[in-house]
Amino acid sequence: MKKLSFYALLLGILPSIGYSQNATKRNLKPKDVYQIKSVSDAKISPDGAWVSYTLTSVDSVKNKRSTDVWMVSWDGKESIQLTNSPDGESQAKWSPDNKYISFVSARNSSNGSQIWLLNRRGGEGKQLTNLKGGDLQEYAWSPDGKKIALVLESKADTSKPKTPKPIVIDRFLFKKDVEGYRERTFSNIFLFDVATKKIDTLTKGNYEVSSIAWSPDGSKIAFVSNRTADPDRNENTDIFVIETKAKSEAKQLTTWTGSDNAPVWSPDGKTLAYLRSTASEDYIMYDHTVLCTISVDGGEPTLLSKTLDRPVNTPRWTKDGKSIFAIVLDDRYRYVANFPLSGAMMQKVSQDKAIFTSLEAHPNGDWASLVTTPELPAEIYAFENGQKRALTNHHEAFFKQISLATVEGITSKSKDGATVSSILYRPAGIDAKKKLPTIFFIHGGPVSQDEFGFDLSRQMLASAGYAVVGVNYRGSNGRGLEYCKVISGDWGNKEVLDILGAVDYTVKNGIADPEKLGIGGWSYGGILTDYTIATDTRFKAASSGAGVAMISSMYGVDQYILQYEHEIGSPWKNFDKYVKLSYPFLKADKIKTPTQFMVGESDHNVPAVGSEQMYQALRTIGVPTELIVYPGQFHGISVPSYQVDRFERYIKWFDKYLK
């Protein structure tokens, strides 16, 4: 439920716009999945002349995605592809001397992913590490470029006997999507000497380590770890600092019983900026991250965004160390803000309606950011004096030939008086005064939001001739903490009121044809689809992706054991709550909506059994239904041909009942 669908993560969001249609343009088609790329992981070179990044594209013949390393000049005039390997590359970083770009790849390796070096002036990549003692999770160059800090996870037995050994489990949280059944693992920090290739151990212990960051002088490393007695039973993390020399002991800086994450050193090395949860409980679902600072010597933190009541992420220090830039998630938007350490009020820096999704500091005091624009998925922009300037341009040629839906915000009232923000997609080339078959396509999370901008799923449905509505039901972020956490332990209640309120609004305002209403979604969107069709019979078609309706059967089956325990308790103590929350299945005979169910075969996030049960129930009572299971797929459907298939099946199903 927490994880978003693959497309939400891949394509991000773009802000609202309508634009003129051209006779040469065409609508999106499901097979356009093969044409759409993804730009990510922008990093500025030490001299500020270049920005490295990764570009993910689809190989339709091999039916897979491949990620390559590129770089673009800061003036935007020159763009160069640096790698072209079928194995793919990730975690591209600049060496401090500005000569090399390092990256992680499993190419030519029997020992898993390794670090490679690529001379930025050209030539083939060269393998730098040959790690055998653990799986590489992340790495970071020391400021002088002589060492690389590695986070290595302990390897389980990687031998492949003819008859696999039994899986022995003794963990509280014993299964997780993609990871599968979870045996005991731990990770630690190691120091790799670039010249000698010798590896020294820096941290020891049966813990997990992440988010490593070198101090500016290279004498210390900050990192994040959960060092409670049983990390599976809580979501606590704290920030630690350790000196980069033999036999050093890690010093714990934060003591918040919630989560502390994402440490970033100040330019003078005396202070860390970081993000902490609002909640201090063991389980953290409905939450807003708060921007904080803390002295490297310890003490009480300063909460810079405590009164903002909006999530903050991606903290980055200004060059003078007097303030911190960060991204703020607000009602359907994301903007860049400046948080002065002096205590002065936060200043909103980005003034246009573009959506900022990353932030990297340039040596001259400017910034680079991944920014989504009205017409295109994310590209890299220079951000100078509050103005953005495009550096990459990987999407314009394709989208010039596409007629996209116009996007606008609508606001509705729910039955209990709640005000709800939604996004409306109107298909291109259709009279705005015409009532349309309308699909309410519900986002997952639930702690997420539909933002003003491009969303491939909704744009694809709109291209098929539907008005499409994304509803930011209660539980969504961007509207304040109370709006987010009010659904805790009460799933399928207020969210359904909000969805139905948006339905009433679109019908009343002549947008939706009341006889041609559809609903769908993935993950928590699929769950809410089940809840909604069990509550209201107005919908003529539904598509529930990776959902669940029989909550009482999911305890110990999915990865949400902490959520069950903390929001509704153990079934043997609170079975009445489980029964109440299972009403879509237990009252399936009230459902009249023809419903399509989809799920990944290997989904441990919201397992296939949730979709299977609802399919069986509707098949039993005679409501038209079908079940599509994607072989070998996890919660996010990642195989390109399966993504195409999913869009084709969405459109075919809704067309059958709404047209």
From TrEMBL:
Descriptive protein name: S9 family peptidase
Species whose genome carries this gene: Flectobacillus longus
InterPro entries documented for this protein: 6-blade_b-propeller_TolB-like, AB_hydrolase_fold, Peptidase_S9_cat, WD40
Family matches, as PANTHER family: DIPEPTIDYL PEPTIDASE FAMILY MEMBER 6 (PTHR42776:SF27), SERINE PEPTIDASE S9 FAMILY MEMBER (PTHR42776)
Residue ranges of the TM segments: none
Peptidase S9 prolyl oligopeptidase catalytic domain location: 454-659
Keywords: Hydrolase, Protease, Serine protease
EC number: 3.4.-.-
Molecular function as annotated in GO: hydrolase activity
SUPFAM superfamilies: alpha/beta-Hydrolases, DPP6 N-terminal domain-like
